[in-house]
Design a protein that fits this description.
Blueprint (H helix, E strand, L loop, with lengths): L1 H20 L11 E10 L3 E10 L9 E5 L5 E5 L3 E5 L2 E5 L12 E9 L8 E5 L2 E4 L6 E3 L3 E5 L3 E8 L7 E2 L1 E6 L3 E2 L6 E2 L7 E7 L9 E7 L6 E8 L3
Parallel strand pairs: 1-9, 11-19
Antiparallel strand pairs: 1-2, 2-7, 3-6, 3-8, 4-7, 5-6, 8-9, 10-12, 12-17, 13-16, 14-18, 15-17, 18-19
Length: 238
């Protein structure tokens, strides 16, 4: 009986010792990135793209590899300082050896020129070091500029697009408030799941007899998207 109790006590003591010395499971580092992509016209037929890639994880990027995919026939023609390769619609860019680590909360910047014909939608499937990237913004209407000067009696244009593809056909609504007489072409602007890129809108400032610099604010909206505004400032010639 005493022997049985002694064995039980020894087993319990060994089990407790093993529980104490068992190594803890290593914590996994969180990785993440957030991409902001903008583009503007470049000598036809091309465009200039600027990309901000923010490290939203808890570990630095000691060098980075960026992967993304075009949805059309876009072809990269030049990059800032990273090395790059393209196979079909897929593009890979790698950081330069001299770049400092990108710490959590900091960002790496990528810029490139590219050619295309037809539709030029933003790239998709962004990844940094194999980790998928998110986009920081909610669906929104985006204008290439939000303030425009225009001489009285002349016209100026701006471009508008959607930040995300719509689920179906989406119509742009345009309202205005301000002073003076302004005119826009009587056209209806639509976006589709296959093409939500820039549409050019031209605004004319009518000639008048006063000496006032008129101003108008256009509000651009699409159902389900955050609106934006574009302000036109007339430069009077009287």
């Amino acid at each position: 009986m005493y022997l049985e109790l002694g064995c039980r006590a020894l087993i319990a003591a060994l089990a407790g010792a093993l529980a104490v010395v068992a190594p803890a499971t290593a914590a996994h580092a969180a990785a993440g990135c957030e991409v902001t992509y903008t583009m503007q016209p470049w000598p036809t037929p091309g465009f200039l793209a600027s990309v901000q890639l923010r490290n939203t994880g808890d570990q630095p990027w000691n060098g980075y590899t960026v992967d993304f995919r075009f949805t059309g026939n876009q072809t990269v023609t030049g990059l800032w300082h990273q090395t790059w390769s393209q196979a079909g619609q897929s593009v890979t860019a790698r950081s330069a050896t001299w770049e400092s680590p990108v710490q959590p909360g900091q960002a790496a910047y990528l810029g490139f020129t590219a050619s295309y014909y037809g539709t030029n939608n933003p790239p998709i499937d962004w990844r940094v070091n194999g980790v998928p990237c998110s986009t920081p913004d909610a669906p929104a209407v985006v204008a290439d500029r939000n303030y425009v000067d225009v001489l009285e009696g002349t016209g100026q244009g701006f471009s508008v697009r959607l930040s995300h593809p719509p689920s179906g056909w989406a119509m742009l609504h345009m309202s205005s408030s301000g002073t003076g007489v302004w005119a826009t072409p009587p056209s209806i602007v639509y976006f589709s799941p296959a093409d939500w890129n820039y549409r050019l809108i031209t605004v004319m400032s009518a000639q008048d007899a006063d000496t006032v610099d008129d101003r108008v604010v256009f509000t651009l909206s699409v159902d389900g998207y955050a609106p934006t505004t574009v302000t036109f400032q007339q430069i009077d010639d009287d």
